[in-house]
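Lecture notes, part 5. Sequence design as translation. It can be helpful to think of inverse folding as translation between two languages: the language of shapes and the language of residues. The source text, in C-alpha cells, appears below.
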C-alpha cells in the first residue's frame, strides 16, 4: 500500500513538472542581493505587487552598500504600497547594513547565516539558495503549504513539517522544480476558494478529488 501511495505521488509530481516546464521565480531581480530583498518584501504580499516597487528601489540602491545608506523612511516611501511596508523597510535597511559589515556586501551562501539576517526566515533562505545559488531547495510558504496538503503530496499541520515531508517524498533533484510548479499550479488552477478542478492536469490523481 505504501508503494502504491508513493507511486501516486510521483505521478502527481511528473504531471505538474510537465505542465509547467518553464515555472520559475516570478520576482524580478538582476543580482542575488536584489533577489534577497525582493523575497523579504514578498512576505504576505503578491509577487506582482513587489515587482511594481522594486524597480525604483533598485535604481536608487542596486546593492547592499547603497541600500545600507538609505534611511528606513526612504525605503518606506518607495514600498508603501505593499503590506507591512514599515517593518519590511526596516528589515531591508538593517540586513543591508549587516551584509556590508559582515560580508563586504556579498550574500552568504549558507542556510544558517542567511537566517541570521533581519527579516529572513526559512522560506526566504530557501528561495535565495535555490534561485540565487542554483541549489536544490523547497521553499514552503502558505501557498505551497496549502497546495501540497490539498493535493495529497503530504499530510501535515504546519509549514515546517510540510517542508520536511516534501523533502522526503520529492526526489532531491526535483525540489526546486516542484516548488515552482506548485506555486504556478496554485496561481493558475488550484485557487484557494475556487479551484478549477475540471481543467486540472492531476484531477484524476489528486487527493481532493479522490477522497
Amino acid at each position: 500500500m505504501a508503494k502504491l501511495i508513493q507511486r501516486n505521488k510521483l505521478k502527481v509530481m511528473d504531471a505538474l513538472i510537465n505542465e509547467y516546464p518553464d515555472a520559475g521565480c516570478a520576482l524580478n531581480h538582476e543580482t542575488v542581493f536584489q533577489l534577497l530583498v525582493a523575497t523579504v518584501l514578498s512576505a504576505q504580499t503578491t509577487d506582482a505587487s513587489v515587482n511594481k516597487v522594486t524597480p525604483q528601489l533598485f535604481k536608487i540602491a542596486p546593492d547592499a552598500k547603497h541600500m545600507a545608506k538609505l534611511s528606513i523612511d526612504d525605503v518606506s516611501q518607495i514600498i508603501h504600497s505593499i503590506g507591512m511596508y514599515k517593518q519590511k523597510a526596516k528589515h531591508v535597511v538593517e540586513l543591508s547594513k549587516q551584509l556590508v559589515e559582515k560580508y563586504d556586501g556579498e550574500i552568504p551562501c549558507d542556510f544558517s547565516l542567511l537566517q541570521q539576517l533581519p527579516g529572513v526566515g526559512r522560506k526566504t533562505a530557501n528561495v535565495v539558495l535555490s534561485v540565487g545559488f542554483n541549489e536544490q531547495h523547497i521553499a514552503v510558504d502558505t501557498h505551497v503549504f496549502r497546495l501540497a496538503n490539498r493535493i495529497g503530496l503530504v499530510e501535515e499541520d504546519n509549514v515546517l513539517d510540510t517542508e520536511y515531508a516534501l523533502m522526503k517524498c520529492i526526489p532531491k533533484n526535483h525540489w526546486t522544480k516542484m516548488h515552482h510548479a506548485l506555486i504556478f499550479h496554485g496561481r493558475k488552477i488550484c485557487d484557494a476558494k475556487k479551484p478549477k478542478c475540471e481543467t486540472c492536469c492531476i484531477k484524476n490523481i489528486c487527493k481532493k478529488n479522490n477522497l
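The translated text above is only one of many valid answers, since several sequences can fold into similar shapes. Residues 30 and 130 are 15 Å apart (CA to CA).
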